[in-house]
Amino acid sequence: MSFRDLRNFTEMMRALGYPRNISMENFRTPNFGLVSEVLLWLVKRYEPQTDIPSDVETEQDRVFFIKAVAQFMATKAHIKLNTKKLYQADGHAVKELLKITSVLYNAMMTKGMEGSKTGEEDTSKFKFDISSKIADLKAARQLASEITSKGAYLYDLLGKEVELRKLRTEAIARPLEINEMEKVMRIAIKETLAQVQKTKDLLNNVASDEANLEAKIEKRKLELERNRKRLQTLQSVRPAFMDEYEKVEEELQKQYDIYLEKFRNLAYLEQQLEDHHRMEQERFEEAENTLRLMQNKLKEEEKRLLKTESQPGEPEAALSDKPAWSLSPSERPGTGNDDSDIDIQEDDEPDSELEERRLSKPRTAMEVLMQGRPSKRVVGTMQGGDLDDDMEAAPALLGKCKTSSSKKQPSPDCCSAKPFLRMGVAGY
């Protein structure tokens, strides 16, 4: 691509009336959209009624478009285009486009030199004249092709004239025999008559077939009309079961509404039941956690008391100074000998019996604590049984104990309940 070719192309397109301004920078890089638009416009200038697809979205469509334009220019304008350069859509395509634009530009300049150089009116008139002569141009091309084919056929016949002249001369020189000619003529006449008779038979058959078809058509028309009347009658008559059908349909609709309402209520109740179960479970877990914390506190208190009891060398006078409610069962007056006897007996007993007695004591204490409440529901895990009321009463008892200890006054309820709670905790 040279700068001069690109400049000439842009000036020619501007002179030909291309509606879009073409810059010399448009062909620095491949621009297939502009090339396809210019080619389609030039083809329309040659023949406005041509039908070339303008779809160039895919690669196959672009190849088909380039081939169609090249074939059109080769057959209509006798311009040979390089399809590869056109497909490149860069500076090399400008040289191929110049072949088309130069022809149109020269024709326009020749027309301007011969006559008028008018503006848009002359251009539109020129276009109109071209479009009006399209039919004559097609007829002339068809006649040219027929002349070519018939000329070739005539040339072949003239080539055979030497042989045909000899045969023609021999046929003319040969004498004619009347009997032979008469025989041939009779045979030809018979064949012609047979052909005529055959044609007449075919015509008669066609007439009979036509009559049969008309009869069938009339019969079908009558059946169609009868069926149409029957259909109208059936549409106008109300079926006997229609009333019952409507009643059943209404009842079914009512039943469906009832079913829908019950289904919604059931879903709502199931949701409420699920919420209730969840709240009960949360309440149970909370109570169980509270009781577990209380048991842990009681265990710690019992361990502390046992640790205090096990300290050696503590004088008995110090124990007598403590209030009776703060002493452990072994330290209280009148119970020391019994505990010592129990200890002596426990020493004599086997370890298994001691373990059973230790386990049985807390359970007996819990039974004493649970007396008077046989109808209460027991809730808990496999680790031990818990009472709903015990879970509520235990914090109250602990609160009383704390209040009494803060005031340095013993509380009988607290003192009476603490051993049982402690023994119950040991059972767990």
TrEMBL record:
Protein name as catalogued: Clusterin-associated protein 1 isoform X5
Gene responsible for this protein: CLUAP1
Give UniProt keywords alphabetically. Cell projection, Cilium, Cilium biogenesis/degradation, Coiled coil
| Gene Ontology CC entries for this record | cilium; intraciliary transport particle B; microtubule organizing center
A biological process (GO) of this protein is:
cilium assembly
InterPro entries xref list? Clusterin-associated_protein-1
The answer to keyword Nucleotide-binding applying to this record is no
UniProt similarity note: Belongs to the CLUAP1 family.
Positions of region (Disordered): 305-428
Location relative to the cell: Cell projection, Cilium
User: Where is the sequence biased in composition, kind Acidic residues?
Assistant: 338-354
